[in-house]
Amino acid sequence: EVVPKNRGLKELSKESREMLESYQHLFYLLQTNPKYLAKLLFTMPQNNCTKFMESVVLTIYNYGTNSREECLLLRLFENALKEEVQRKVDKVQDISTGSPTVIKIVVGYYRGTQGNQNSLKSLLGPLIEQVMEDSDLNMNIHPLEVYKAWISRTEMETGEASKLPYDVTPEQALKHKEVTDEIENTIKKLVTIIKSFQEKIIGTVDQMPYGIRYMAMCLRKNLKEKFPESSEEEILKAVGNLLYYRYMNPVITAPDSFEVIELGAGSNMNNVQRRNLGSIAKILQHAASFKIFDSDARYLASLNSFIKTAYIKFMEFFDAASTISDIDEHFNMDEFSDVTMLNKPMIFISPSEINSTHQLLLDHQKQVTEADDDPMNEVLASLGPIPEDEAMLGDKSTEFGLVLTNKWELNMSDESNIQALFSKTKYLIVDLLKIQRGETFTAILHTDANKQQQELYKAIHSRRLAAENEKTNEEEKNSKMALFDPNDNTIKKLKEHILKNLTILEQHKLVTPTEDYQEILTSIAKDICNQRKYRQRRKQDLKKIGETVERMSKKEKSTDCDSALIPLL
Fold this sequence. Notes:
By secondary structure, this protein is mostly helical.
């Protein structure tokens, strides 16, 4: 149940074991039901909200290391954002002018994790490096600085001190043709570079991390629901504030802070490079938010026509980026996914994090739960108050592996486990459809197989049986819920098994015989269509796990701490 880093299970008392079991139930409930943490985040003291979110909450989801946990974490972000919009946002513009907690956490997560960092690096890195490597590039368009640089250049060329005053106002500086000409030339160069940045951004929408796009879609939906009178343009501006200003803009202005560029040992960005990138980011933000330069900055008025055109392109981009597939479809997860997992989920968490979460839930139990019979009330009742003995679960700062379990999960070896039964029945139906065809599924079930079909199925069954006998895991081999059943050695027996299962599923209203069991057939069709996605997601999971291990290894070396290896697989 538990994998301590520095102590074994035998050292835990019976009372500690019972408490750990209840915590297994608690954190499974928190992880799989995002409504609890979403509500807790906005009922707890707000000065602790961000810290709690960044430490404990991300720990509960293992920082989205695999598909399941990334999906669940994204569900939490979705619920928390909805809570924040409902509770904290009074008008659409608050998204742009305020500092929404959830958006800040979401952006930090999707910009900071390794895989998503690589996305920004491939998107913006080459253009940023191109700007930085141009030593002759100077995007200074401030009248006073251009004026002073012009005077200095003139003095160096003539060898004589300028007769012009050095300290002037911007208006006075702009009276000199040399200054306005240089600003106009710089603006032309700036627009050319900005166009390349915008074209790259809007042309690679499909390469953006799914999570940040999904949250943009959620923000758009939440704002529409709360402010139905607001225009689509107004809402898309708020979406753009998330996608460009908060997510991308800081990467352009300070690429060295987000590891999207390669700097040599001891190398740093110089002031000219920072100013150039700052100018690019500023104009892009003006275009994304349709902020026109007025009379206070009339020397930049020539940029307004470009901003108007770029704004239209940005609106189309924000619309496309915030239109994306549903989360369950993307991650290929449904209500049966957890039941059919081979290994139960595990998180690494410290006793102090457990206790702080437990206490917060007790303090805000009424606000977090929906009714007296809410499952959370039952779990908290079994736990009781925080234990007085802080060392009950071990050293308060030492993390241990906590295997999460569903308190209400049915016995996996029992055919009454309806969720696992649904998945098993799909497997059996696929076996049947490989052998026998017909006009309807019901017709196939009630039509005798011919001799050729019987022989083909017998050969397939024999190969499966041989593979099953090679298994060494007796628990897996003997499980009644195992996908392969050696007793289904004829098509007739296979059909009897399928019909028996379908009868149970019908009782639970999961299938409808009068509609040719379309519910389960649709689910099978979806599985087949997503097989490629399954394989791609598995590769991504392995890559993310490798990156996580590498990141943890670097952290371990930097802190010079000796600790045991964490069994991630």
